[in-house]
Amino acid sequence: MSLPQNKAAEVKPRAFERFVPVDHTRVAFDGGFWQSWSETVRSVTIPTQHRRLEEEGFLEVLDFEKPPSPLVRPIQPSGLSMQHFFDSDFGKWIEAASYTLKNHPDPDIEAKIDAIVERLEHGQMPDGYLNSWFIRREPDKRWTNLRDLHEMYSMGHLIEGAVAYFEATGKRRFLDVMIRAVDHIIDTFGTEPGKLRGYDAHEEVELALVKLYRLTGDPRHLKLATYFVDERGRMPSYFDEETRRRGENPADYVYGTYAYSQAHMPVRNQTQVVGHAVRAMYLFSAMADLAYENDDPSLKHACDRLFDNLIGRQLYITGGLGPSASNEGFTREYDLPNTTAYAETCAAVALGLWSHRMAQLDLDSKFTDALETILFNGALSGISRDGEHYFYENVLESHGQHRRWKWHYCPCCPTNIARFITSLGQYFYSAKRDEIAVHLYGANTAELEIQGQFVRLRQETSYPWDKDVLLALGLVAPTRLTFRLRIPGWCRNARLWVNGEQMDLGASLEKGYAVVNREWVDGDEIRLTFEMPVERLYAHPAVGEDAQRVALKRGPVVYCVEETDIGTEPQRLRISADTNLTPRFDETLLGGAVVLEGEALEADAEDWGPTLYCNRPPSLKGRTFKAIPYHLWANRDEGAMQVWLTEK
Amino acid sequence: MSLPQNKAAEVKPRAFERFVPVDHTRVAFDGGFWQSWSETVRSVTIPTQHRRLEEEGFLEVLDFEKPPSPLVRPIQPSGLSMQHFFDSDFGKWIEAASYTLKNHPDPDIEAKIDAIVERLEHGQMPDGYLNSWFIRREPDKRWTNLRDLHEMYSMGHLIEGAVAYFEATGKRRFLDVMIRAVDHIIDTFGTEPGKLRGYDAHEEVELALVKLYRLTGDPRHLKLATYFVDERGRMPSYFDEETRRRGENPADYVYGTYAYSQAHMPVRNQTQVVGHAVRAMYLFSAMADLAYENDDPSLKHACDRLFDNLIGRQLYITGGLGPSASNEGFTREYDLPNTTAYAETCAAVALGLWSHRMAQLDLDSKFTDALETILFNGALSGISRDGEHYFYENVLESHGQHRRWKWHYCPCCPTNIARFITSLGQYFYSAKRDEIAVHLYGANTAELEIQGQFVRLRQETSYPWDKDVLLALGLVAPTRLTFRLRIPGWCRNARLWVNGEQMDLGASLEKGYAVVNREWVDGDEIRLTFEMPVERLYAHPAVGEDAQRVALKRGPVVYCVEETDIGTEPQRLRISADTNLTPRFDETLLGGAVVLEGEALEADAEDWGPTLYCNRPPSLKGRTFKAIPYHLWANRDEGAMQVWLTEK
């Protein structure tokens, strides 16, 4: 098998822009906002997560010789368990760790990964089947319940881990294991006679297969991903069929509807984002991948409608998504409760995956605006500043009952945010032919090759705390290049200079990206200024939960008020419409961040008396208050928190 | 065994007022607000509930000869099931039905009750043990898990049913069955050597035993109730002990803390209302009963503290209680979310039981105010106007997803609200020596004997729709009597006339009751006027969910706005602080009710655009709106509802 790394040389005309992300290994966070986050994740998060996987028995599932311990439980009477997707957790951990290895070799981490791979290889069944729990516990039940048991979801994460590990180290063993596993899936599922026409209810393998295809170039890998996406939602449902084969009644399905898994209708017919949020985002990511690889406008069209539905009607201001715990997902449009927001970290990360993929197809800043929103808010809130405590749910309001935890009984989120941050560099730049797109801002140095030319890009900026970005070019020789620079959707006043000369931004804007085409020489400078006054934002009137509430945002950063800063529950504050809010960089706050300070009123209980209800409103007294970036909440003393503040 | 009906002749001095409720059979709702509700419950609710109990297989648990059907399942791996408290459901149904039989004999209902009693008697074990599910399914496991399996809770409801049925019909069979069951409990539990020192985690049998004692006069019945209440919360916990006996680990308790069952400390030490709301209310009802029967100020004192905690910090404005679904109960003080309010119907009914008992001990209107609050709001909302649809949870805000159901997998609430309404008369009046207390207002005719004198009381009123109450006395001979007339706590301007002469209300008020002592003659009239302007109520500043919100109340009736009346989600309304709100009796609304009408602003989405968030608030347009009594919501077209309206 050959492993072509670059399949750019295709001939047929393409329907879409085909940007290719600049690999994360080429982008170094050598200062600024992301430096400390990426170092913390590499040096603290990755090692402690391996420790947790060991302590919590996740790796014990790989002790194939030993009799199953009580930890590796049989399927519960509910039919559900976390056990059978333990593979996904160490798959994601391997992926996260691998992204650090190229630039920061670590023999200890490599040895830990090799040990897992050896055990996986040892456990793999002769026909290629691979799911540790099934192999140990219920080998006869494999592939009998794609609706509930996540076998391909788990394999998908192992595939992503194997690809990342190969790319980091060049070691093929894990990759070969997973290619054999994929061969087995190809032998088992598909439209050909004798195969099962199934697909996994929890999407993930689809996008993993595209990733594998991009590495291997094996068309069967792309074809399998395409089959899974095309087959999804066909009626009568495969899930009904397999349920009956198990002697069970499809009507007893605990989630009631296959919309839970976006399998209620063919994907191209779907117009509203429904069901389990992570599943939805993984599916849509795969749809974007297949639109790209198969040059399929029908999938791009479906993605566009779904994206607009999500952004326009179902997304928290933080980029969190999926308001409901009961289905870990979506309910009705405009249902965005704050205190009970589920808004799983994984879902925000997965929206990052999807929106990034959409931007490669169609360079529109609405996609990269969403990416930036989750990056500074609803995804980053999922990990603590110390790098070893997490949120699964990312509420927008708390009375102090929400605390970060060291581990979770369903620990999908920690490794997801870890792999996102360790691969963060790839989200900054894309390139095609003689074009470079700059999606994100933040201090970094990137080195890339474009049309055979070495290009060095250096962003000097304190973004998102500061409005100014200097982009310095390093070139070996003068080169004609088109830069496409994202002008953030939140910014109402952006300016752009090239070597000191201000450009007409309005004239150069295409889908939210400023286009600058010229011959560049070494040392050229692009300067961008994104005015970022404190914004007071209001929710659509259909969002009942946010009636008479205001959210504070500065640049891409959403703010919240924490009890620990103001000495009372923020729910007692009333913000006046004309309050002046002043940003100030507070270097003492968790490594340094811009805080907002201003005047507010506080509902006073002193003269209220012992009753709970009274026929006059609480008296209000003036006071100052402080707001901090939402992603930094719950890193200090416990207490209440609020994003949507009451306006008076 | 003798059955003394009247044990009033005791000699020792008592610590408390000892009012005795006037039996519900002596109070006829011959007009006014409660007439149609009580007729509906008797003629529709009682028969349909028996049909549901049959259809849903609840009575099938009594087919002791047949092998258990799949419906009668073994204990689930979770250790939990509804099956083992099916007895409680038909126990409560028998109680509810019995309350109607004296004044409305119904051979068909009586035959249905007799059939159940016969089957129960047949199934009862030779030693008196009685729980249908255990006898059929797990006889060896009886009394092994008082923490989870509700055996005494179920027996308690059967005892209440048996007492009610005996009092209605004079038939002793059911009563004898339950006395034998109580004998068995007495043989099994207690402090004596050889007995188990257990008590049921779900309180109920305690208050049932006091009820039984009041009928039988058997001091062992009172002693057993006293033992259960005194034993509760003793450490080390009996629940730990029995859990270890089952070979399980007490640390695995699914609810984490015995506070769930108010068993975390001795009851006299408890100061905050915690845990499962219905359990708490049943316990406190029993504590009030035992304070009364045992003349025990320590229990009264504990009840007072707990009552003040509940009313002052944990009660919805509707009288709903227990905000959280996860423990069906309390969380932290001032946690009163609206859309996720659990506020179980049973808990509101049970608060009615407790507050009514407190008022007999200590005639303070704070207790009967609470009783009236649940009566017109948070309990009555649990049953539909047609008498055969129910709410288990009584939210204070909905986006339209809450609909009433015909039956429930845990159908404790329907029979609870049914027995409450069929026995409602008993809550109106109490008597002691030469005193009559009038707790509630609403058209009715009551006949009682006091010191051997026949007294007829006739309330002529449209209360709660109208402010005027005429209380006409019927007497055989002139009689000196003290009337104690509740002046509702919500009323800021009440007036009282006796035979046309206005009294000085301020001077006559004792703990919220106006005291009128004089010699009365036949035809005397007491007239009361309770001014009931529309009140705008605000919640304590610590209730974050109600910040900048206003609730509307008129008299004892809390209002809500339903989408079906205003054509949009009420969450879009903004109420101005100076809006005029006009009450109007709408005879077309569900049998007739006072509605409130006024001006409001509506947040408009027309000029909003496709985005979810915007840097200017929604524009507001003027409109009218209507509010209806909360207890009538969800009886018409489905749609959103809101009690706490946003104030602008």
Automatic annotation (TrEMBL), chains A, B:
Non-reducing end beta-L-arabinofuranosidase-like GH127 middle domain boundaries: 436-532
Pfam families: Beta-AFase-like_GH127_cat, Glyco_hydro127C, Glyco_hydro127M
Coiled coil: none
Residues annotated as domain Non-reducing end beta-L-arabinofuranosidase-like GH127 C-terminal: 534-645
Residue span(s) of domain Non-reducing end beta-L-arabinofuranosidase-like GH127 catalytic: 27-425
Protein name listed in UniProt: Glycoside hydrolase family 127 protein
